[in-house]
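Retry 2 of 3 after timeout on previous attempt. Resubmitting structure tokens to design endpoint.
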């Protein structure tokens, strides 16, 4: 979603993905196929921690096949879209939290260069280091869990559902979640 919204396709760059609602765990698999088909092109996989975790076994294919794919994992410790969907329909989020490993350290353990970015000030240097490396790289980008991925249009139904979620969160003692959402998306 972030790539479709913020990266410009210019005739030389292509965005490939499964853009069906609720699809998960396809970015790295598609990147492996694209890199194998076009070995001379730079291929970048962008995925959330949930989708990446589902295919961690395929991550080893990068080493086995010698594919220099750059894998970016947006590590927010949650099934972010599922959590947002729950909130937008008025439900308190449940069962969406992850206790992730340090994905960069995991990459190093299997022979792939790992770069962990935990602070926005580290982004430029971390990405430069990743793209300067000849082989495969995993960028473990620790991102804000409460950053909202806004849909192209917000419907009245979504606004009502999100309002219901906020009321339920406050009433159940989870008002801190509502404040985190406001800090991340309104008061910056």
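Retry 2 succeeded. Sequence:
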């Amino acid at each position: 979603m972030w790539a479709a919204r913020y990266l410009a396709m210019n005739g030389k760059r292509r965005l490939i993905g499964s853009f069906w609602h609720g699809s998960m765990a396809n970015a790295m698999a598609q990147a492996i196929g694209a890199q194998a088909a076009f070995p001379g092109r730079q291929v970048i996989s962008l995925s959330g921690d949930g989708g990446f975790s589902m295919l961690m076994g395929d991550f080893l294919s990068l080493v086995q096949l010698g594919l220099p794919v750059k894998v970016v994992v947006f590590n927010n410790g949650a099934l972010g879209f599922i959590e947002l969907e729950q909130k937008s329909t008025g439900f308190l989020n449940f069962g969406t939290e992850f206790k992730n490993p340090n994905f960069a350290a995991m990459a190093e353990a299997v022979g792939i260069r790992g770069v962990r970015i935990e602070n926005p000030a580290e982004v430029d240097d971390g990405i430069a280091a990743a793209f300067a490396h000849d082989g495969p790289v995993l960028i473990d980008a620790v991102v804000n869990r409460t950053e909202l991925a806004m849909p192209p249009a917000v419907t009245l139904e979504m606004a009502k559902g999100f309002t219901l979620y906020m009321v339920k969160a406050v009433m159940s003692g989870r008002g801190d979640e509502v404040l985190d959402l406001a800090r991340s998306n309104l008061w910056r």
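Attempt log closed. Residues 70 and 131 are 8 Å apart (CA to CA).
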